[in-house]
Amino acid sequence: MIMRKLLFYFCKMITKRAAAVFIVVCLSGNLYAQENDNILKLGLLPNLSHMEILQTFSPFIKALENETKMSVKAISGKDYSAVIEMLKNKEIDVCPLGGISLLAAADTFGVKIFARTLETIRPDKPPNEAYHSVIITRKDSGINSLEYLKGKRFSFTDPKSSSGFLFPMVALIRHSIRLENLGKVVYVKKHPNSLLAVFNRQTDAGALSEDIFIRGTGVNPNELKVLWKSEPIMRGPWVARNDFPDEKLAIVKSAFLNISRQKDAKQIFAKSFIKGFVPAKMSDYDNFRDVMKLKASLEK
Q1: CA–CA separation, 225 and 210 (whole Å)
Q2: Distance CA 194, CA 189 (A)
Q3: How far apart, in whole angstroms, are the C-alpha atoms of residue 226 and residue 206?
Q4: Which pLDDT band, with edges at 50, 70 and 90, does 48 fall under?
């Protein structure tokens, strides 16, 4: 009889403790979820150095934290593919992409587009929604048109770059020049690297964003010339991962647009060529898909 009572008491204590542990675990899970909900993981493209990213985006990140009441964690990928992979693996919540990477992400795992970048070529110029791709060479290269590029050394930025690869590659194919018709081809990742490669005679010609060419950082632009210039290209989209909560995305989108309209927006974006954001939709980038289809058809 005594043994039965002891056994009953022991089982009762275990049950209470198990229930207590269960409650603690549930509360801990809820607290973790709440804490995680208050963090916004912001992915960034690697077109700037780590120090430049800090200088350029710090005021915007601070403004974003004030607007969203979230803690913003900035994470930079080593290239376009790395950023896409981080978005796919939920390592980041939102990030900017190029037109090609937008379509790649949308087609493979889905994304939610919510804004487009407004950017200026130079501080004294007004911001705009579009830019151009260019193919450049040195004025003393003896290269006067795209046809002269056969067998020449050529620099692209990244295979997933719109202005650093897709648009100029289509232009080359239209002039009967495929990758195998070029000489040594190098992918230099960043647009300024392509500019420097041409200027320093490491390549004979190169593709890059016209913005970077006009800024001409580290080169004498009078020694360079443009062989080809693209149609207007819509500036980069900002997207969220596909399972990012809609109510949270609405807060983030509103913050992006509100910051762009703030009285101190000039100060927030003072150290950046980015000057604000406008709403975006997938159809804004239909011409990228058209160019990709054209590239595929021309390569057959």
Answers
A1: 11
A2: 8
A3: 10
A4: low
CB 232 within 8 A of CB 157: no
Listed as own residue / partner, the contacts of 281-284 with beta carbons closer than 8 Å and 24 or more positions apart are 281/113, 282/102, 282/106, 282/113, 284/113, 284/116, 284/234, 284/237
Task: Find residue 118's DSSP bridge partners.
Answer: 276
The values of phi and psi at residue 231, to 5°, are -65, 165
Task: Note the pLDDT tens digit of each residue in 215-242.
Answer: 988 999 999 999 999 999 999 999 999 9
Element (H, E) at 118: strand 111-119
Residues 6 or more apart whose CB falls under 8 angstroms from that of 91 comprise 41, 43, 75
Taking the C-alpha atoms of residue 185 and residue 180, their distance in angstroms, rounded to an integer, is 9
Please state whether 211 falls in left (phi above 0), alpha (psi between -120 and 50) or beta.
alpha
Quote the CA–CA distance of 259 and 277 in Å, as a whole number.
Answer: 8
Instruction: List, in sequence order, every residue forming a beta bridge with 41; answer none if it has no partner.
Output: 73
pLDDT at res. 6 = 40
- pLDDT (0 to 100) of residue 81: 84
Q: Give, in words, the CATH class of 130-233.
A: alpha beta
As a whole number of angstroms, the distance between CA 28 and CA 261 comes to 39
Domain positions in the chain are 38-121+236-284, 130-233
d(CA 260, CA 247): 20
Task: Classify domain 38-121+236-284 at the CATH superfamily level.
Answer: Periplasmic binding protein-like II (3.40.190.10)
Burial 139-175 (b: 16+ CB within 10 A, else e): eebebeebebbeebbbbbbbebbbbbbbbbbbbbbee
